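#struct-help
A.M.: can someone run this one for me? Single chain, 689 residues.
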Amino acid sequence: MLKRVCTLIIRRGLLTFQNDSAFRVHPSVSHALAENRPVVALESTIITHGMPYPHNLSTAREVEAIVRAQDATPATVGVIEGKVHIGLSTEELDFLARCDGSVKVSRRDLPYVVSQGLSGGTTVSATMIAAQRVGIPVFVTGGIGGVHRDGENSLDISADLTELGRTPVVVVSAGVKSILDVGRTLEFLETQGVCVATYGPSKDFPAFFSPLSGFTSPYQVGDPDKAAQLIESALSLGVHSGVLIAVPIPQEYAAAGQQIEQAIQTALAETNARGITGKDVTPNILQRINELTQGKSLQANIALIHNNAKVGSQIAGALSKRVNKRKSSIASYHPAKQCETNIVVVGGINVDFIAKGKTKTLQFGQTNPGSFCQSYGGVGRNIAECLSRLGHRPMFISATGADSQSDAVFNYCKHMDTSGVTRLEGQSTATYCAVITENGELSLGLGDMDIHQLITEQYVSQFEKQLLSSTLVCLDGNIPASTISYVCSVAKQHNINVWYEPTDSKKACKPFLSDAWKSLSYASPNLAELCTMNKTLGLQTPKVLPNSLEQVLSLAVALSRPLLEHLHCLVVTLGENGVVVCGEHHVGSVNLKPRIEKKTRKLCALHYPALSAAAHKNVSGAGDSLAGALMAGIIQGRDTDACVRMGLLAARLSLASPHPIAPMLSTHSVEPDRIQNHSWPKPTFMWLD
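D.P.: on it. Structure tokens below:
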């Protein structure tokens, strides 16, 4: 499995990529994305394989000019010497237009072309990947590929169709090329779950050179705003498939369609006779059609591309206006606070419904006696609330729906800084339902957490000032891996300490899918999550977790050791067995103070037993309370013992509360000195080396 090597960073308001990345983003595209202005992605096979020189270069320049004339920014995508460029300079456009031996780069070709330092034009599928990678929702092309004629026998189906089925980018095209099997192409798009709509007054599906293919689209959008409304709905649903907007060729060029269709039939027959197959079919046929029509097909081709660029740019503009309008309404509901903060928390916010049984065990398949309560959770929200109740005011960055549940959330969290929480139209606020036993142990959990995937790197990048001024940034595992990588890259660039709370064993892997984890300073996994982290790095982990305390501690220390090559400190939570703190040795203890620079260290660990507690009412926020109180102690400059004791007290309070974070949590309630020193369980010291 290829690991993600592209790490997005923000510098002076621009979106750029690190020098070792396979991607390069042109400054004009960076500016537009950072300022939420419309950007239109453009493919480059039309430059490298679609037209002869100099028509290819002039057409590319004309298309970019049309996009700019509609107040949008063009982002032509191409591969130059192994780097995927998103937005090309004049010199780079000229290079691709003249490049001999350029590769036609589809999804399957990207790894090889990048690894070998080759150059080429990106097809629809490769361009969609690049556009989605940096957050460009609209992509304009001439015509997409499809199912080839006789495809039921040859199985020759363009990768464009499967890409539309798995990449949430909108493709604006003149339908599919009439050299293909239009009917089977539409059937295949339906199978892939792709929403298809014709642009204009009719549902007739266009066939590139002709506005009529003999088939109809499932849907129709009449103007840019209607198209933008469809796109916004599609993207907000999180279905992870694209949208195809089919734009008919301008009527004045459609008259030549019959002559071109006759040429297509001739070119197809000649291509079959010559035994041409695969990705060479389309460019050969198009070249032959141009010859047979004495250039009329090329003129029509250029005309429809110009038209698509105009329509696509208008749609991108309408979409941008809708998004910015929504953000303005969100800002008016919760005006952004520009004050600097020393802690930023990025993570999930949930409405929790807790069903607690009145028996020690629950019987599935029948009604069990119980009680119910509603509370407000989410790991990020829990940690931010804990910090807020302990005298800090962290900025909390998250997302909710624009629904009644979010109204209740904001009302409950009014003591917190929620200026970084966006309310999204058409989305549902994350909801979690937990069924717990009489003693508070989780029996079954159900969650609708899709909105967490909309806490994207593009959204979080709006809070660059707060990130750069922070002493500590906390990330929870609910947010996308790309957002985690982005924050880690900012942290690495500006020497910011990042705390990762992995949330659960499935999500613990996210920073470890790339080198992002090497930029973390702290992490607070449980033993299962710690195993996932190691396993993701290819390290050996046990299939079954041990039961005895001695074996548990031995495993926690062993699994922490390789991660501490880069992490400053690990806080391994062990439930009723307490917590193990692993890190740099300092005066007989573990140094928890924020790291200033990486250096060679002698490593050790401290095991703190859990505090005795009353009956557990809710276990969902205990680990978050521990982590939040630890962070508060670290920011306050407390020693390690005091920090951990604060965390243990906060966890005990939350275990005894029906809410994830106990409302009575305060600086006084977690003050270690209020409990006599001899009452504290003594920690056990262990060397890691």
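A.M.: thanks! The chain has three domains: 1-136, 140-327, 335-687.
D.P.: also worth noting: Residues 1-20, 329-340 have pLDDT under 50 and may be disordered.
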